[in-house]
Amino acid sequence: MHRLSGAVAGPRPAWPDGIRKESPAAASLADDGWLDTLARDGRVVCPGFLEDRLSDALRQEVYALRNAARLRSARVGRGRERRHDAAERGDRIHWLEGATPAQRELLERLEHLRRVAARGLIPGLFETEAHFALYPPGTGYARHVDAFREGNRRRLSLVLYLNRHWRARDGGELAFYTPQDGADEARELERVRPEAGTLAIFLSQSVPHAVLPTRRWRASIACWMGLRDTASPLDSLERRSTG
């Protein structure tokens, strides 16, 4: 698993000129105005964060991994109780290691977002991890939060979509919900279509979400930004299968 990490001292990070020209939507996140929306609503959606060139390259990589049988089924649960449960979570994953030019370019963009978020909203946000997630037809991911209040360093979750020409009838939306409070039922707030280039950002500890059942292969990249890792070697090993 590849992790980008670093301090946040110094001036505000400048978005590379090439990204500013190719993806104005991505460049707009170099400023910290989106953090106000994130703090207020717990989530931000940015269509067009990835331009077609980069999105297509990453999509080709995840399908090449599928064809080479290099994706593995994701697990659910905590610690020693982690298990495979396709009815609850059906994606197949592969951690990004920065092994290709497309991966390195994406990780560079994520690093810029981390630095902006660390300065403006979450002090101590130190590192980023990411994996491909490919959902076969008929699968999804039941409602959950990405980090428990205690014992998990994740603070910011990001999902990037890689699917061209996604139609409403294809399903597979990312659904956001109200936090479940006591006996009250969680209420759906928003659905995000997993169209290529779209980025969703949300708070890991407080925003329930789900992947609704998909009717076609659905490709994405799931990312987390977290505090400095002080976990034990066993915890680190277990975390390799989370997300």
Automatic annotation (TrEMBL):
Family matches, as InterPro entries: HIF_prolyl_hydroxylases, Oxoglu/Fe-dep_dioxygenase_dom, Pro_4_hyd_alph, Pro_4_hyd_alph_FE2OG_OXY
One Pfam entry name: 2OG-FeII_Oxy_3
Gene3D superfamilies tied to this protein: q2cbj1_9rhob like domain
Region (Disordered): 1-20
Keyword DNA damage: no
Superkingdom per UniProt: Bacteria
Keyword vocabulary terms for this entry: Dioxygenase, Iron, Metal-binding, Oxidoreductase, Vitamin C
Molecular functions per Gene Ontology: ferrous iron binding; L-ascorbic acid binding; peptidyl-proline dioxygenase activity
SUPFAM superfamilies reported in the protein's UniProt record: Clavaminate synthase-like
Protein's GO biological process: cellular response to hypoxia
Cofactor(s) required for function per UniProt: L-ascorbate
Name the record gives this protein: 2OG-Fe(II) oxygenase
Record organism: Thioalkalivibrio halophilus
